[in-house]
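Quick question: what would this complex look like in 3D?
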Amino acid sequence: MALPIVGPVRVGIIGAGLIGRAHSLMLRLVCDGAPESVAVTRVHDIDAGAAEALALKWPGAKVCAQAEEMFDDASLDAVFICTPTATHRRLCLAAAAAGKHVFCEKPLAMNSAEADEMRAALERAGVVGQVGLVLRFSPVYTVIRAMATEEAAGRLIVVTMRDDQDFPIRGAHPSAWRNEPRATAGGTLIEHSVHDFDALAWMFGPIRRLYCRTRNLNGAAGIEDFGATEFEFEAGFHGQLTSVWHHILNRPSNRRLEVFTENLFLACDTDGSGPITIQRADGYEEKIEEAEVMRRYEELMLGERPCLSPLRHSFQIPYAVEDAVFIAALRGQCEPGPGLEVGVAAQRLVEAAYRSAERGAPVEMTDLK
Ligand SMILES: NC(=O)c1ccc[n+]([C@@H]2O[C@H](COP(=O)([O-])OP(=O)(O)OC[C@H]3O[C@@H](n4cnc5c(N)ncnc54)[C@H](O)[C@@H]3O)[C@@H](O)[C@H]2O)c1
């Protein structure tokens, strides 16, 4: 599909489950901000009822009984791949062969070699690819990234993150595939904390070495529900990530982040929009309130991509911003991203953590190259 696309970007959603429905809502927000910029025109799911229910949200959208119908449909510009991890590779390679632009959910694939094959196929086809590493659009993390790397902050000393979620096979995640070794690339480290591995490298810089220990309490082969990862960044400072899948049904999925530099302490108890705790070398602990965080986020986002201005009323929703970037990129208004190469790099970091856990020893990222 030649770029830029003139008129609404015509999108097909593959997988009408939790995240497929979320992307549909986000694309509606994008459309509300920039009318006629995008339309969902095709939906496919192996569960026909789910596909029909989602298609009803978009006037004129049709259900495709097979994904191939979408790929053969010349009217379609792009597909969103929103199915369980094991299916991503086949769908992405077929979309690339048909010349469709691709937004693919994370983790990209069952391993980084497959993910890289997907990246290469999109590159060869000359189409745009974006991976759903949504923390790159988090207001609090975007602002913390800017503050922690200011010269006045001094050198980074340590970053500590906790990512916890109810074991995602019930409640907000009612489908069972995350507990099915053939459908998932692993457990909490790859299926959830791949976001964190990417966010830590994006916020604070390249990672040189990892040491990880895992535990498996749920019993399904290869699906760990705990991971403790120690990072050594190339710049010499350290980080720790605690990844937990627990059974506290009413506890919402959340993250806590703490950063110490020589002259600054930063912390936040959300991974989206909220206040940031701050203490400077000469001050007391105080809060940067959510409204001020959002003001700074807007300034940073619009500085990078002014074309997102019509979406500013939805900037507190990272999924809306990531979808707006994909659509605007296809319309020639900004650079896409994060691209599939970012998804491959994040998957390689998690693979290094798994290798470390298997060996019971640290792993250098250069060992994997
Ligand atoms: N970025 C995020 O924050 C985020 C959040 C949730 C899920 N995800 C990712 O999105 C993907 C889907 O997760 P989910 O929570 O929406 O799962 P889900 O189980 O809620 O939905 C998946 C849907 O895909 C359908 N499906 C399964 N196999 C299919 C196939 N071969 N062809 C077509 N449809 C098929 C299922 O019927 C289901 O409706 C996963 O890769 C997951 O890691 C990302």
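Answer marked as accepted. The chain has a mean pLDDT of 96.
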